[in-house]
Amino acid sequence: MNSNVRAYAAASAATPLGPFRLIRRGARKDDVEIEILYCGVCHSDLHTARNDWGWTTYPIVPGHEIIGRVASVGADVTGFKVGDHVGVGCMVDSCGHCEACDEGHEQHCPESTYTYGGVDRQDGQRTQGGYSEKIVVNQKFVLRVPDGLDLKGAAPLLCAGITTWAPLKNYGVGPGSKVAVVGLGGLGHMAIKLAKALGAEVTLFTRSAGKEADARRLGADHIVLSTDAAQMAAVAVRFHLIVDTVPYLHDTNPYIPTLRFKGTLVLVGYLGPLEPALNSMPMVIGGKAVAGSLIGGIPATQEMLDFCGKHNITSDIEVINMQDINDAYERMLKSDVKYRFVIDMASLKQEA
Amino acid sequence: MNSNVRAYAAASAATPLGPFRLIRRGARKDDVEIEILYCGVCHSDLHTARNDWGWTTYPIVPGHEIIGRVASVGADVTGFKVGDHVGVGCMVDSCGHCEACDEGHEQHCPESTYTYGGVDRQDGQRTQGGYSEKIVVNQKFVLRVPDGLDLKGAAPLLCAGITTWAPLKNYGVGPGSKVAVVGLGGLGHMAIKLAKALGAEVTLFTRSAGKEADARRLGADHIVLSTDAAQMAAVAVRFHLIVDTVPYLHDTNPYIPTLRFKGTLVLVGYLGPLEPALNSMPMVIGGKAVAGSLIGGIPATQEMLDFCGKHNITSDIEVINMQDINDAYERMLKSDVKYRFVIDMASLKQEA
Fold it and tell me: Do B105 and A261 touch (CB under 8 A)?
């Protein structure tokens, strides 16, 4: 049976988010109905609300760092029961039988369905995200939240966590690895925590002096001011992996010489032309690569959550009410958050 | 005892190559003295002769696709004897004890010494290449040429061969792999032959119609005209690996959507800014990479030669005399060679 739930939506690229009523489908036989407790606020939410990428259909309810409690389950659901703490990330469905799905890289399935702004493969309805009281998701895309993990701080793991975990795992980071992280925001602070917990020596590249104490607290062994030529030269040919989390246009060239041979700079934040032009010379001469990485598959997401449970890793967050979202977006644009906003969905109850 | 040998050198960026007398050192205890029979003509020779990369010291004797016969060996040389057919590629020395050397990636050793334009680590002399009668090389950088392989056609394996072999091996190409090659020149035609022999399904991307018959003869299963939008769309998300051999500025963006997730486009020919700017969006969304690859290490070079011996693979060549080198450079700039010039060093004997 469909339900009518409170949410926050953007009605157009130019309007702030505001209260919205959303129809959620009743649980199908393989669905989990989730009461949303917390939802992290990702840069993608803001980009989508404002149609920065040109693909938004309005109204749009953002939110894909969802933590909740199972409210009901369909007849065929195994592995989840009412009351369980669960998470939902950036995807809610995929075809289930392509090479990407077979390998657990559902994000690369041609029919991968985003949590918001996608189209449900069964009923053709537009998907809407986690800035709402409830969501109904196929059990294959529901994650288990390990016991004992702080639920508020766990919300950003569903996007910021897996987005940084995937390259660390795909490029084999472990003890002995030298990893650098570009940018200290929602993604960057998770990259530092996860790389450190995996046993790597971790360096933060930053353009702002004064982040040193915080970076060290998060787990960074070294801080390099990327605007200081001498500091950059001192880390030449050093890193096996650079996780570049910066979500806006920036010059990637200065980081390439700091990669070892066979090293890779992985872009996880910025979508657009690499300007000034990436120079292939140090890439060829040094045998180096620049790659993109998109969130991560469901098996990797569960692996990351379990790892975080074991190492008690959550995001550093600032809890806000749903009504504060537009101010939060403005503060994100100024990097004024340490390090992720998380919406307490109880605040939605004060809406009509 | 030093010897005075005939060679061809460029005296400046603006002058054609001409006859030159070169002093070769006597063989040290771990050196192999090689009578050069054939030397392939690589685009790097031309770039270096004309100082296109800005690092040339004159006079310079190019040539790093060297096939010859052992003339003498130092006291500590094992594994080579007078009369053996041997090869020398792009390197003649390295430190021998860094991580790159330990892993057999001597090309990434900080002390890697190029065959020409480098500086000998022991005597500080400038190294000079294979456009000469003789070369003296540390045994660790001398390759065995398998019996039965055509010596003339084997010369380009020392650079064009290993340059295309290395990414094929590093990215795990074998039966079931779908490999594309960009550009049908000296490197491109070797990439096709090697990928095919490794068991891959091979596609040639070309901007020129009319190469189809030749590409198929070399081993290509498919030919895609990269200027034809419909043909490009038909190979979307298809390739595990693209070996991009084009040695001049070209737009790499159109090839990215043809990579599968986790696929990589490897640049082996072009050194410089990637313009128009490489767009990270399809790289992030699709989980794709752009990498550089530089020749290959000594173990991989020997492995490639042995593979070529087993599969009777050599380069398609046009044999020229040393005196024809300047005309050959002009023809290379017009892509007027199928597919590699090889200098018959016997022609040097007519010089004074």
Answer: yes
Q: Which residues of A touch B (CB under 8 A)?
A: 99-100, 105, 107-108, 110, 237, 260-262, 264, 267-268, 270-294
Contact A289 B290 (CB under 8 A): yes
Q: Tokens in use for A126?
A: 């537009």
Token couple for A57: 């259909």
The full set of domains in chain B, from first to last, is: 3-159+297-304+314-350 (3.90.180.10), 161-292 (3.40.50.720)
Between CA B180 and CA B188 the distance in angstroms is 10
pLDDT digits (tens, 9 = 90+) for B151-208: 999 999 999 999 999 999 999 999 999 999 999 999 999 999 999 999 999 999 999 8
Residue A327: other Cβ atoms inside 10 A: 12
CB contact under 8 A, A280 and B274: yes
β-strand partners of B135: B34
Provide the whole-model pTM.
0.95
The torsion defined by the Cα of A14, A20, A26 and A32, in degrees rounded to 10, comes to 70
Chain A hits for B273, CB-CB cut-off 8 Å, are 276-280
* Cα–Cα distance measured from residue B11 to residue B29, given in angstroms and rounded to the nearest whole number: 32
Residue B36 sits at φ, ψ, to 5 deg, of: -80, 130
Which pair of tokens denotes residue A94?
């995929």
